[in-house]
Amino acid sequence: MLVFPALLIAALSALAAGAPPAYPAQDPPPQTRAVTCTLSNPSYSGYCKVTEQAPASQSANDACQTVLTCLNSVQCLKTYCDATQIRGGWQLVSAVDGTGN
């Protein structure tokens, strides 16, 4: 019974003959990207900068709206801006994605 070794040799020969690889040549595009939100509040000293991961399909401004909504809600439990307790009066100054747009 030399069938198995013969099949194995035939399969390896086919691979060595230049069969294309079974994986894509390029990496897939990233699913998320970093977005930096700059926020201000008259009761907070200086600007607050928050960097969040956002879906690649979402604009930087939309991603920062999530942070802004949280900072302006007493029901939000996430901590931003050095764990500030200030809830309300926040404004978005800028929203910048990883490419600077």
Explain the overall architecture:
The protein has 101 residues and is α+β, with helices and mostly antiparallel strands. The chain has a domain at 32-97. The chain is 26% helix and 24% strand. It is built from two helices and three strands, in the order αββαβ. The chain has a three-stranded antiparallel beta sheet, covered by helices on one side. A hairpin with a 7-residue loop joins strand 1 (32-40) and strand 2. The N and C termini lie far apart (66 Å).
Give a quick summary of the entry:
The protein is an alpha+beta fold and 101 residues long. It is built from two helices and three strands; from the N terminus they run αββαβ.
Distance between the termini: 66 Å
The strand line-up of the biggest sheet is 2-1-3
- From the alpha carbons, calculate the radius of gyration and give it in angstroms: 26 Å
Percent of residues in helices comes to 25-40%
| Shape designation | elongated
Structural class: alpha+beta
Biggest pleated-sheet summary:
3 strands, antiparallel
Instruction: Work out the number of β strands.
Output: 3
- The DSSP helix count reads 2
